[in-house]
């Protein structure tokens, strides 16, 4: 079987292309260094969402059956977008801000509702709003076999002005 010059050239070009790494998540370049070796092996689950819409919810609640009467004012962001990776089922991200706790709850993805819930300190609210207003933002969630989870909001590459 003889190949035409074009076929040979196309085959040579294909053979020189780098093969995609199966072990790397789509947006692995945005992960911090894994100095504690928490990310063992390939992620069992990856959800990657490009954020297209967001809303801010600033609530107020008062539980009248307790003394003294506690008043809370929960602050959250609701992000919606489009899944970016094969097999992703995520449709929404809820971000809750906590100004009082010394530790935050871990990220949780609920496959039934397709909602990822994240917890950030209240001090990060302004940073996230600035990102959402000014940049293309992605949310990723990774779950590893050893129980480690990672979630973040990040921009794509942005040109310095």
The gross shape turns out to be elongated
Described by strand count, sense and barrel closure, the largest sheet is: 7 strands, mixed
N-to-C order of helices and strands: HEEEEEEEHEE
Helix content: 10-25%
Please give the domain count. Answer: 1
Strand content: 35-45%
Query: Which structural class fits the helix and strand makeup?
Result: mainly beta
Mean pLDDT: 83
Neighbour order of strands in the largest sheet: 6-7-5-4-1-8-9
Number of helices: 2
Low-confidence stretches: 19-23
Task: Give the distance, in angstroms, between the N- and C-terminal Cα atoms.
Answer: 55 Å
Radius of gyration: 21 Å
The overall strand count is 9
Overview of this protein structure:
This protein is mainly beta. It has one domain (40-155). It is 14% helix and 36% strand. It has two helices and nine strands, in the order αβββββββαββ. The protein has helices at 5-16, 125-134, and strands at residues 45-58, 61-62, 71-72, 75-83, 92-98, 108-110, 115-121, 137-143, 149-155. The longest helix is centred in the first third of the chain and has 12 residues, at 5-16. The protein is elongated and about 90 Å long.
